[in-house]
Amino acid sequence: MALLITDECINCDVCEPECPNGAISQGEEIYVIEPKLCTECVGHFETPQCVEVCPVECIIPDPGRKETQEELEGKYKALMAQSE
Known about the structure:
Layout: E1 3-5, E2 24-26, E3 31-33, H1 49-53, E4 59-61, H2 69-83
Antiparallel strand pairs: 1-4, 2-3
GO molecular function: 4 iron, 4 sulfur cluster binding; metal ion binding
Keywords: 4Fe-4S, Electron transport, Iron, Iron-sulfur, Metal-binding, Transport
Organism: Nitrosococcus halophilus (strain Nc4)
């Protein structure tokens, strides 16, 4: 499933540069994650890098966007094909 940044976000700017897919951007009030680009770092890292660096632990699985490991891998492959 894609990840979600909750309103506990303190806009510390550490998550955005860690995302290998460019899925994180500054929203109106807090950072946001574009679900179509979020693969939870599948294909790049063992764990989601934004979650690893977040000092307030405000990045959680998005309950409205459940995806299997296979779906995340498929999304990763599609994103990589687009970037070629």
